[in-house]
Structures are given as C-alpha cells and as structure tokens.
C-alpha cells in the first residue's frame, strides 16, 4: 500500500488501495516517460476506483487526482508552447473559450439537452447559475477558478425538468481544461 494516502476505518468505505496505487504508479511512469502511451487530463478526470471497506480516504485521493490533472495540463501547455509558441497556445485557448462561450449564449433552460423521460438529470437553475458565472468570467467581470467548477454540485431533477448529465459534465470538463490552461 502507498504511504501517500491514509486509510479509513474498516467500517467506512474508501477507494480500493490496489487500484489507486496501480493508477498512480502508471501515471507516474507515463509522466516520467517510462511508458510510451499518453495520459491526458481527460483520462485523469474519468478515472474511477471501486469502494471497499477500509480503503484509501476518498478526499485525499480526489485531491491528488486534481493535482495530477493540473500537472499533466501544465506539461501539455509547456510542450505545446515549446513547439508552437506562447501566442499559438493563447490562440488555441481562445478558440476553446469561444466554443464554450457559444453554448453559454443560449438562454437559461436551453443550454443543454433535457434528461430523457424518467432519467435523472441536473437542476437547470443550478447549472445555469454556474454557466452565468462562466459568462461573467469570459466577459472579465468576475473571477472563477477550475477548482470552483470542479467542486460545484447540482440538485437532481427527473426527465425534462433537468439537463442531461453527459453533455453538462463534458462541457464543464472542457471549461476546467481552459481555466487550467490559463491558470
């Protein structure tokens, strides 16, 4: 077991230590160039571990995943800038931001597809409130960080009263990448 993460009591659930150790070992080897494959920030965002009794503390592991994602994005930025220059990186970020901003220009309640009949979705007002904060950020009226978006929570709604989760999650994952590219 890793010395990086503490374990929770045997009566509580935590992340499976074997899976976590394997993932972080693999990520370290990829980052250090000891493995030929690439690991992207998206791969890190979607990593999931089984819950087991007495496993690793989920908050510690999640915080480490956030730092790992930031490290991979910083390296991606450095590699891109080394090949294409700082201005090209800023242009690429601006293009991604324009794509996000286009979605944000839609009216409240219409930014994302509704959840399917009987499916769980995200509360439209909660999602639209976070979208409005992004609009204010892009309009240079209000700061926002990737951590704020990452930690946002939305109430649940069923069917057409909520936004479908997949498109919302994908949109905010892209927003996090843009914000991390700027930070």
From TrEMBL:
<dbReference type="InterPro" id="IPR019932">
    <property type="entry name" value="CHP03543"/>
</dbReference>
<dbReference type="InterPro" id="IPR019933">
    <property type="entry name" value="DivIVA_domain"/>
</dbReference>
<protein>
    <submittedName>
        <fullName>DivIVA domain-containing protein</fullName>
    </submittedName>
</protein>
